[in-house]
């Protein structure tokens, strides 16, 4: 289903602006060669997309570059179409208002805008995409969020939780320089506790080895806790046997422990402040097919019934599937979506896949925060959906 949605998205992104520009600018050209070659780039990109769909497991690196090239070609044309349409509507509105021909200065202004605005907006968009590909994946942002609840114990008023998610260490090729900055930035927030909500690797535990000495420098008063994400189960690569895959998961968990991280496998920990305490619950990945669904929330929260509870669960769909209807957990922290790593002017297509795809969501005083991740996967860029370090401060509702 997700693959179908992505394919439909690219069909619209590639063909709609091409059709618009062809109809209004190319179709009536006296030069036949323009009309003949206009559709060739988009047709070539669509044919390449079909190849990547059928051979996606063996062409992942090439697909990464394909996505960047496709965005650099298609998105500026889409922006051109939108700007040109807005100008046309402005012209029609002006004609209705003046009923006769518009004043000459307005006509000249429209003519200038008709030439410059769509072209400038398209070029600026292309530059923005290039920035996302070169610098965006390291453009770390610290998000400050407050969660207020009457259930927060008084001693935990002002408690600072630093959330990281979706590091995908297998995607980093700069020998850890960027992650060093991310770790330093995280420690500079002076958190009380650090939580990691899954997808530490792309598939293999060995991807973590070059970065263990860096990630082990993360510091928090009450420790560092983590859960598994869908990629951590190693289901996106071929294994000779199921035993090999399970051994890979065990190795990943072992290496996290070597870094000083406490992996929560359908279990919980109690955090204390004076005479007060809260429960930190962690489950294995609980997702809709085709993602793994190995979370056992009843087991994980057993013994925390009368406490303020924070749940670490990688997939945000878990919130509406089980957390809201079957528990009284006050706050869940998730990742997984990446906001599809592209958010153009506040809009992301991830909203059509995940109802809760980034930021804080509240329902009847209970909260879900979706961290859009610190790393990247599939294609090496972030655009608008900048890599995120979240600091969530608990507040007692007076």
Automatic annotation (TrEMBL):
<dbReference type="InterPro" id="IPR051158">
    <property type="entry name" value="Metallophosphoesterase_sf"/>
</dbReference>
<dbReference type="GO" id="GO:0016020">
    <property type="term" value="C:membrane"/>
</dbReference>
<keyword id="KW-0812">Transmembrane</keyword>
<dbReference type="GO" id="GO:0008758">
    <property type="term" value="F:UDP-2,3-diacylglucosamine hydrolase activity"/>
</dbReference>
<dbReference type="Pfam" id="PF00149">
    <property type="entry name" value="Metallophos"/>
</dbReference>
<keyword id="KW-0378">Hydrolase</keyword>
<feature type="transmembrane region" description="Helical">
    <location>
        <begin position="6"/>
        <end position="25"/>
    </location>
</feature>
<dbReference type="InterPro" id="IPR004843">
    <property type="entry name" value="Calcineurin-like_PHP"/>
</dbReference>
<keyword id="KW-1133">Transmembrane helix</keyword>
<feature type="transmembrane region" description="Helical">
    <location>
        <begin position="111"/>
        <end position="135"/>
    </location>
</feature>
<protein>
    <submittedName>
        <fullName>Metallophosphoesterase</fullName>
    </submittedName>
</protein>
<feature type="transmembrane region" description="Helical">
    <location>
        <begin position="37"/>
        <end position="57"/>
    </location>
</feature>
<dbReference type="InterPro" id="IPR029052">
    <property type="entry name" value="Metallo-depent_PP-like"/>
</dbReference>
<keyword id="KW-0479">Metal-binding</keyword>
<keyword id="KW-0472">Membrane</keyword>
<dbReference type="GO" id="GO:0046872">
    <property type="term" value="F:metal ion binding"/>
</dbReference>
<feature type="transmembrane region" description="Helical">
    <location>
        <begin position="63"/>
        <end position="90"/>
    </location>
</feature>
<feature type="domain" description="Calcineurin-like phosphoesterase">
    <location>
        <begin position="160"/>
        <end position="339"/>
    </location>
</feature>
<dbReference type="GO" id="GO:0009245">
    <property type="term" value="P:lipid A biosynthetic process"/>
</dbReference>
